[in-house]
Amino acid sequence: MSEFKETAGKVLDQYLVPNIERDEGQGTFCFEAQKELGKLGLLAPLLPEPWGIDNVYYQTELAEEMGYRCCGFGTSSLASTALFGANIARHGTKEQKEKYLPGISSGEKIGCWALTEPQVGSDALSVKTTISKDGDGYIVKGSKTFITNAPISDYFLVMARFEGEGIDGGVAVILEKEMAGLSTGNPFEKMGNKSSPMSEIFIDNVKVSQDHILGELGKGFYDMKNSLDIERVVYSALSVGIMRFCLETSIKYSAERKQFGKPINSFQMIQDKIAKMASSYEVCTSYLYTIAEKMQKGENINREAAITKYFIGKEAFDVANEAIQLHGGYGYMKEYNVERALRDTKALEIGAGTSEIQKLIIAKQAIKNWL
């Protein structure tokens, strides 16, 4: 374990863990943990200096520690830093970076990345939100849904279409909370990740200047592909963290729980479950950090990101399910939190591209490479 990972874990134990029950029950985000990580320079290692250390490997380690403790918190924290913040860092002007990244890296400000719309999910290039010229500036109108952090965000990175069709003509536009015409819906009530607020965004003829255009006009969808690759890898670390939690909790429980006069970990059926969970965790961890190293080197990981997202997400759900079964009736209760793990893992098979979309990417590239 790196010193960075160990330190981040200690901070989360002190500032996040005592508030998990509160945040899960109320559907609130733990700003205390976000700001403390930011204060210590641990919140956004993915960002370049002086806001981070330009290290995706450490960002992945941080995500694993978050997933181990509370996936909901990790989902929202990463949306602010690894989605909104990282996009600003990659494609923003000097002025945009200096305006938005200090607050994001310190945890004082929250950002979100808005792609999905009521009628646009897997077909991401079909966004209906538009941005059009209006004198020296632009007008943005449309709506978004299922947007992590929308109810609590200060900054919104919205994908819109300027012209053309397909992958051409996309624009990433930065909106700010106080802009006239920008509003959010009530937070959704979700199956899992309850401490990660999510809602709709309504964009009613919001006026913006050139300063709010991120990157090159018309190239936003190309930039989006890179963002999705990073999201798929870093968010998969949340799954690995959940797997670690389920394995650790199950091993401890099986050593303490007695049936027929002896600990249940002495029974082969229980050992079978532990073996499956341990194998899944070890294989997924190894692959995840191998791909994180490739990302750190700047290698193209589009295929590997899809494999990471699909395989680790599936395995995390299976591990959480095994953990509940191992705990029996107690697993179905909230006391051991493995039921929360199962609910939280399901979102990781849907967000940033469903498992079905990942399989399409994997299959297309496998056919291309092997024919």
Structure description:
With 371 residues, this protein is an alpha+beta fold. Helices cover 54% and strands 16% of the residues. The chain has helices at 3-15, 20-26, 31-39, 56-69, 71-91, 94-106, 220-256, 268-296, 302-327, 329-332, 338-347, 355-370, and strands at residues 111-114, 130-134, 137-148, 155-161, 170-176, 182-184, 198-208, 213-218, 258-259, 262-263. Helix 9 crosses helix 12. It is globular.
Distance linking N and C termini? 41 Å
What level of helicity do the residues show? Answer: 40-55%
CATH topological fold name of the largest domain: Butyryl-CoA Dehydrogenase, subunit A, domain 3
Count of helical regions: 12
Which runs of at least 5 residues are low in confidence (pLDDT < 50)?
Answer: none
The level-1 CATH class of the largest domain: Mainly Alpha
H/E order of the elements?
A: HHHHHHEEEEEEEEHEEHHHHH
Mean of the pLDDT scores?
96
| Total discrete domains | 3
Task: Please compute the radius of gyration using only Cα atoms.
Answer: 21 Å
CATH architecture of the largest domain: Up-down Bundle
Beta percentage is: 15-25%
Category by helix and strand content = alpha+beta
Estimate the global geometry from the Cα principal axes.
Answer: globular
Strand order of the largest sheet: 1-4-5-8
The number of strands is: 10
Q: The biggest beta sheet, please?
A: 4 strands, mixed
